[in-house]
Amino acid sequence: YDSKTEGVPRDRTRAVVGYERARELAADDATRARCLNWIGLEWSEVEPHDYARADAAFAEAAALGDRYAARNLALMLKKTHADAADAQRRVTELLTIAARGGSVASMRDLAERHESGVGCNADA
């Protein structure tokens, strides 16, 4: 938090690029997970929101062991899904894909299929 930037519009694209670069340079999974969690926060909190990308980043970070990202993923899905059982199923699917080494792109595809109503499972 920087009080000098309070009220100043954020440049999400620039922030995400910076976090992506930091993730690439990270020496360990914990640092990579923190970068992914921040990427998820950028997508979820800065207008216009992109919840599918936020979900994917949180899931990948959670799979690397970041408990805050796991919490953020659960909160995000509860916020965007009226059906609690569906939200929990999506959390499980995203974490399973991430744990298997799935990419943010494959998780984004899963999220888009969910939003379009196309059925999918953790093996997608």
The Cα radius of gyration reads 14 Å
Are there runs of 5+ residues with pLDDT below 50, and where? 118-124
Sketch the topology as an H/E string, one letter per element: HHHHHH
Overall structural class, as computed from helix and strand content, comes to mainly alpha
Helical percent range?
over 70%
The fraction of residues assigned to DSSP E strands is under 5%
Distance between the termini: 38 Å
Got a strand count? Answer: 0
How many strands, what sense, and barrel or not for the largest sheet? Answer: none
Outline, from the CA principal axes? globular
Separate helix tally: 6
Arithmetic mean pLDDT:
76
Q: Structurally, how many domains make up the residues?
A: 1
How would you describe this protein?
This protein has 124 residues and is mainly alpha-helical. The chain has one domain. It is 70% helix and 0% strand. The protein has six helices and no strands. Helix 2 runs antiparallel to helix 3 and helix 4 (67-80) runs antiparallel to helix 5. It is globular and about 35 Å long. 35% of the residues are buried. Mean pLDDT is 76; it is low at 118-124.
What's the layout of helices and strands?
Blueprint: H1 12-25, H2 29-45, H3 51-63, H4 67-80, H5 84-99, H6 104-116
Helix pairs in contact: 1-2, 2-3, 2-4, 3-4, 3-5, 3-6, 4-5, 5-6
Q: Outline of this structure?
A:
By secondary structure, the protein is mostly helical. The protein is 70% helix and 0% strand. InterPro entries: TPR-like_helical_dom_sf (IPR011990).
Top keywords for this entry?
124 residues, mainly alpha, 6 helices, 0% strand, disordered C terminus
